[in-house]
Amino acid sequence: MSKSKRRSERRPMFKVCRYTIEGRDYVDLSTNISARGIFIKSTDPPPVGTEISMLVKLPEEWGNLPLKIVGRVVHVNNDADSHKRGMGIEFASVAADSLPIIEYFIREIFGESPLSQSRLAQEPKGGQASSYRYQVRPPEKP
What we know:
Blueprint: E1 11-12, E2 16-21, E3 24-33, E4 37-41, E5 51-57, E6 66-77, E7 86-96, H1 99-110, E8 120-125, E9 128-135
Antiparallel strand pairs: 1-3, 2-3, 2-5, 3-4, 4-7, 5-6, 6-7, 7-9, 8-9
């Protein structure tokens, strides 16, 4: 996609990404991130529309705390050069056991502060403290 068609600025981010598709775990390398999503290199990317779940850790200054990101594949590059292959993932929601974790991620990646309360949900966790889920984008209408 040309830079002129992009809806948000991309920043280089070369990090190992652990993600799950349909119950199967994968590990690949990200190349960039934006307020809309992330590009992950993959020699065999799944088709557009596939849901993906990623578990990431925040930086050390935030205690390497875990954050779960759910997204969907919106772009696939099946270039003959395997070094260029991969998938563009659009973020749908983020979840964590602590509200400050979500606030940090949303502020750093999306530039949103404070959080939109209409997109924030508190979810009970079987006898333990609640977890939080933030809808990054309003749900798509059928």
